[in-house]
Model the fold of this input.
Amino acid sequence: MCAPFIASYLLYFWEVRPGSINYGELLEVKPVSGTGLNQLDNTIFRMRQLRGKWVLLTVDSGKCDEQCRKKLYYMRQVRLVQNKEMNRIERVWLIDDGETPAPKILDDFKDSWFISAKDSEILASIPGKESQRDHIYLIDPMGNLMMRFPKDPDPTKMAKDLKRLLQVSQMEHAMGSADMKH
Done:
């Protein structure tokens, strides 16, 4: 079941062509699971709710300083530039402390998931506890953490990585559907 996504990673990242180097750092592929509290409606959030979607994820304080806002902005813009494919992408902010985000932030980045994740399994599954806030992470449609972007990322390069992954995973999905019909 994971084979199409693993194949898409291999096709994407190890294809030998000039200029085909990815921008994001590949991580050891591992599942992200657990629960948190959805800040918008005080319901339980489960990572499995996002299965089938690519997820841009950030970890930060609910106070959300300038760096935090920049990450949220980049995630929104990277999703928007995917045009018709943008509905295949979700954005998640894991709030790693007890702080509640300001209403302006919630409004500016609506359509994101705002998840209270302090001491949660979700937060524990993100590598580098001391540097979690430095990165934007990418989770595949199977729920696996597979990439992170550097601190102060270039959103244009992030968008290119994501566009390519969306294209390759769409091809893999189409090929899998064609195989099932035979």
Helices lie at 3-13, 66-80, 103-108, 121-124, 155-181. The longest strand covers residues 25-31. The chain has five helices and eight strands. Residues 155-181 form the longest helix (27 residues).
